[in-house]
């Protein structure tokens, strides 16, 4: 027969040669130093012709004679698995060391939105879930019930645009609007509204503007806490290190400034006075735009014309513009001053005796780490209760976008801001506020609630008694300026169209 490596191989020779190669490779894997002699090759060839040859690994069956000395493909795959396992172990160890809780950390719930640097225990409770909210939630009623509510309410609110509105909800909200300083729950408001014929009874169609109301929509949740001396000391030190406090006050309203400044001194809270904005002054609009408190391209004349239209029926909005400008002004001051957190009071606010302790406790125990803005007193709140003193604000889908989902989540008397995130929030907020086609959005609290699906806004319900703060009985500067700007034919119209 032909010799190995010389001349053509017969069919039997090919089989013999392949068998030799496979057996030789298997033996080389176990003993690299052994070599095969010609006689052992011949003997092995005869044995393999008489017996069924041992099958090599599947990955080897497709290899040719020239590939016999190449490493197995299994080795690269196993190496990748080993590397992946090692990386997984390192990641798990890091999570243990850094106390990252799978499924509970906001960083994992909202990947990329909250960087690890923002998960600071002095800014939020790092152990809390980021709440899940049903952004499409609304009060869904049948056509007959809606028609009945419209028949009852239309003559009570003649300025309200009638088309595509939920009149049961308009009547329900109106009860809250007429009891703004009362510490009452939404359940109480619906019962009162049904009694006066403004909305349907809870027994027939119950609606919860605050989802899970048993968690936070209760007056008793606002009671003063039993703070220990250690807690009071910790709260005071935390405020000193992390929180700047500001008060918005008109330049000529010294009595209000003296009132709130005196109250803050009693509470040992150091505050900076920031002047409000009165748009009736000369060149005030120009200066406000130059400073960035009003968007450069904002056309107030167009916005006022829209507000006067029958669809909106708002009357003058000059005072509302000044109020919005003032809040963006004080925010800009807080950003310039720096620091992690800022509290802004309006000058008709009256913080409770244990305000510092309440704020410290709220941030450390109840506030999720995705937060950007917290209203410390929110009237007619709409959203979801997430803790005993806190709601996650959401837009009111019972009201159309052209109305800026208006009529809920009112209150700028005391607001907590997260300064490193505030510029980003401002960009979204200003775009909503300075929209000439939606004059209801000029109210900064209304606008903020309307974008709460894009900005993480939380609030303390005003139903809680006494809560964090209360509003004094001073008249609203915004409302006063708006009323002064009404025309004769608008005297019977609510200057703010609060419904």
Write the SSE topology.
Elements lengths: L10 H20 L7 H13 L23 H25 L7 H4 L33 H11 L13 H11 L8 H10 L6 H4 L4 E2 L1 H4 L12 H14 E7 L4 H13 L5 E4 L8 H8 L8 H9 L9 H20 L3 E6 L2 E3 L3 H12 L6 E6 L4 E5 L2 E4 L20 E5 H15 L10 H7 L6 E5 L7 E3 L5 H8 L15
Parallel strand pairs: 1-7, 2-3, 2-4, 6-10
Antiparallel strand pairs: 4-9, 5-11, 6-9, 7-8, 8-10
Tell me about this structure:
By secondary structure, this protein is an alpha/beta fold. It has four domains: 1-52; 75-117; 143-207, no CATH class; 213-490, Spore Coat Polysaccharide Biosynthesis Protein SpsA, Chain A (Alpha-Beta Complex). It is built from 18 helices and eleven strands. It has helices at residues 11-30, 38-50, 74-98, 106-109, 143-153, 167-177, 186-195, 202-205, 213-216, 229-242, 254-266, 284-291, 300-308, 318-337, 355-366, 419-433, 444-450, 477-484, and strands at residues 210-211, 243-249, 272-275, 341-346, 349-351, 373-378, 383-387, 390-393, 414-418, 457-461, 469-471. It has a nine-stranded mixed sheet, sandwiched between helices. Strands 5-11 form a two-stranded antiparallel ribbon. A hairpin with a 2-residue loop joins strand 7 and strand 8 (390-393). Helix 5 crosses helix 6 (167-177). The longest helix has 25 residues, at 74-98. Residues 1-23, 29-71, 95-113 and 495-499 have low confidence and may be disordered.
